[in-house]
Design goal:
The radius of gyration is 17 Å and the shape is globular. A hairpin with a 3-residue loop joins strand 1 and strand 2. It has a two-stranded antiparallel sheet with strand order 1-2. The chain has two domains: 64 residues, Winged helix-like DNA-binding domain superfamily/Winged helix DNA-binding domain (Arc Repressor Mutant, subunit A, Orthogonal Bundle); 40 residues, no CATH class. Helix 2 crosses helix 3. The chain is built from five helices and two strands; from the N terminus they run H-H-H-E-E-H-H. By secondary structure, it is mostly helical. The two termini are 18 Å apart.
Length: 133
Amino acid sequence: MSRPDPIFVVHPSSGVPIYRQLVDQVDALVAGGRLRPGDLLPSVRQVAAVLGVNPMTVSKAWSRLEADGVLARDRGRGMVVAPPAGREGGALTERKAQVRPLVDQAVVRGLQLGLTPAQMLALVKSSLEEKTP
């Protein structure tokens, strides 16, 4: 990859298959512009080793992304981000639409747990500070 590798994070107990988590993360990185056409993804073995998952799981994710036109095989290099032809762009409204259900779920859970809006905003701010380079 031409820029620093994106960090993939999986949650085995989330109920979402690991390959699907990887697919969703690559889709988000492409939509957000952190991965651009021609960028090389880490190899199946590299991702599997870092995450401690079966290489077939990563291979399934990369194959699914290739079938969806997000990735392309570049002989001798590996999987690269495909040109955007036939794919939706990373418009801000589309990116917000992808995040909104997650935010709504977190807000509902916070309210159920009795957190105030100020406490929830502080949690979001803290998380952003920890994860923003």
